Amino acid sequence: MLKDKKERLKELLDKQKQKRIKEEEKNVYETVLEEVNELFPNTDSEEEVEILSKEDSKKITDELFKKFPFCSSGIEWTHMFYKTIFSNFVDYEGALAELVIKNHKVSNEICYIIDLNSQYVIKTKLIRILHSVEEVRNWDRYIYSPQINLVIEFSSNDIAVGWKK
What is the pTM of this model? Predict the structure, then answer.
């Protein structure tokens, strides 16, 4: 009888814990959703900007880490052959768009916004990112396009762009 009470209590505690975890996940997702709405305020459909599931987000982040050389402080740019680094103090937005479009003939390439502090990755078109790069820009965030093997990192006051051929 005492054992039944203990088991029942354990089940109740487990249910409470699961409920708490689901609430926390819901809050994190809602925070990411708010951020997406701030970054891309005029989004008409889910096709334009999508928040990937945690599982898909992990796959994309893992793929980024496999394709590009990372160290503890971010991408190891000395190991990247194709790269350009823009200073924050120049008109980097126009120069960045010109560089990417010139080298990669950008049209409808899929792009991911990967924030290493978040469980969720945001999926959109690369051209949307280029049009709102100032809003997207953040310290621990990467822009990654697997179709053209392109990565953008926002480190300190610089914007670093690298790609593989």
Answer: 0.78
